[in-house]
Amino acid sequence: MLALNLLPPSNVTVSKSSRKYPFNASLLNPNPVNRINQNPTSRFNHRFSFGSFGDSIRQISKSKPDFGKILGFPFGVSSRISSQKLEAASGAPQESSPDGEVETAKPNKNLKLAVIFGLWYFQNIVFNIYNKKVLNIFPYPWLLASFQLLCGSVWMFLLWSLKLQPCPKIDKSFFVALLGPALFHTVGHISACVSFSKVAVSFTHVIKSAEPVFSVVFSSFLGDSYPLKVWLSIIPIVFGCSLAAITEVSFNFEGLWGAMISNVGFVLRNIYSKKSLQNFKEVNGLNLYGWISIISLLYLFPVAVFVEGSQWVAGYHKAIETIGKPSTFYLWVLLSGLFYHLYNQSSYEALDDISPLTFSIGNTMKRVVVIVATILVFRNPVRPLNALGSAIAILGTFLYSQATAKKPKIEEGEKTN
User: Fold this and answer.
1) DSSP strands (E only) in 89-196
2) Which of 67, 134, 205, 276 could disulfide-link 177, Cβ–Cβ 3.0 to 4.6 Å?
């Protein structure tokens, strides 16, 4: 008996919904370069999709909310330029750059990079300036850090309720797995805010540039191995930070230890998250950061009330008396909280479009820009040796980024050969 197949063959494939928003715990890292280094293959696999699977990815990208159109500058920006969407949908050929990025026309690429870096740098500078302005007249970092987490939590609830960001389906096991990373995130955030309240912003950022040192040391204790060039790259970081510390005009031990503890907190968060959150593939990076902010707020605010709650009322009246206008004080506090979340959000958006090599350069330059901007705004005195130490530490951070960014690239090339 003969059976006739009258239906034409179909190339349509169906992907599982649980993979629509792939999650990787490395996205927790506040340093975008380190986030990429912790899982170098995830970005490669996301970018180079072929055949029908690539078509399904393009369909998903069409339905993704465009933050640039909905929220506008400086509150959000889409990680996809409209011209790039049209070219991808039309099947127009695209060029691949040597470092792994997919390029469209060069003017469009330059415009895209300018928007991404400009927004990321601008939001980070605004946060650091207004955060320090508030702490200068209201030196209560525990309350300010709690408010910044509150702003991030409210922002994410708005995105979820307005369907501008897909709300993940989570369960009790997800919250249990998130308790540890959220705790270390809380420690890192409040320690940094305490440091900002005690010393110049530029000094805190110089010390925070030593985070790769803690990452290498802690990871080595847990069994990870690093090539010699990575270990050599942390030597100028340690030397530069030490030189900057002993020559800092506004040196304060609380400020120094606050920045150091912040590094420890964020590194432990990254390590812990890799072990406890790998099974939750349905939660993307931005949603994960939103839940981190919510749980961190629950951790931090009760402790803030205990540590400095009795001083808030008197401190508030003194701040209003110093600044003159209550509305100005409210605006500064609001801007510090809002831009704290926005610059983190922009870093997630930027990760979709920039290669590890480009991001390593951008992240190093971002720290330089923030340090220079805050020195100009607050007119902090800088000694020559202090500037030299800061430059050496930042150079070491750049060398570390290059050493760790090139290794995954080589490994990926070996896998494809």
Assistant:
1) 95-96, 102-103
2) 276
CB-based contacts of 174: which residues, under 8 Å, 6+ apart?
A: 280, 283, 291
The CA distance from 337 to 339, in Å, is 6
Rounded Cα distance between 324 and 137, Å, is 11
Residue 89 has pLDDT above 60, yes or no: no
Residue by residue, DSSP assigns 244-268 as HHHT-TT--HHHHHHHHHHHHHHHH
Give the Cα separation of 163 and 67 in Å (integer).
Answer: 11
> How far apart are alpha carbons 99 and 405 in whole angstroms?
10
Q: Is residue 354 part of a domain?
A: yes
Residue 46 within any structural domain of the chain: no
Task: Report how far residue 335's alpha carbon sits from residue 322's, in angstroms, rounded to the nearest whole number.
Answer: 19
Token duo for residue 134: 């508030």
What is the distance between the terminal CA atoms of the chain, rounded to a whole angstrom? 48
Pairwise CA distance, residues 27 & 38, whole Å: 9
Domain-embedded: residue 189: yes
3-class secondary structure, 102:
strand
Alpha-carbon dihedral angle through residues 213, 216, 217, 221, given to the nearest 10 degrees: 170
What pTM did the predictor assign? 0.72
Domain that holds residue 326: 125-404
What totals of helices (H) and strands (E) does the chain contain, helices first?
A: 17, 2
Q: What is the pLDDT of residues 42-66, one digit of tens each?
A: 443 443 333 333 343 334 344 444 4
Residue 339 lies in a domain: yes
Question: How buried is residue 377: exposed, middle or buried, by Cβ count under 10 Å (0-12/13-18/19+)?
Answer: middle
pLDDT in tens, 355-391: 655 666 677 778 888 999 888 898 888 889 989 999 9
Average pLDDT for residues 149-164, to the nearest whole number?
A: 93
Distance CA 374, CA 53 (A): 46
Burial class, 259, CB count within 10 angstroms (exposed 0-12 / middle 13-18 / buried 19+):
buried
Is 30:71 a contact under the CB 8 Å cutoff?
no
Could you report the per-residue pLDDT of 274-308, keeping only the tens digit for each? 777 777 777 777 888 889 999 999 999 999 999 99
Give the confidence band of 108 by pLDDT, cuts at 50, 70, 90.
confident
pLDDT at 272: 82
Structural domains in the chain (count): 1
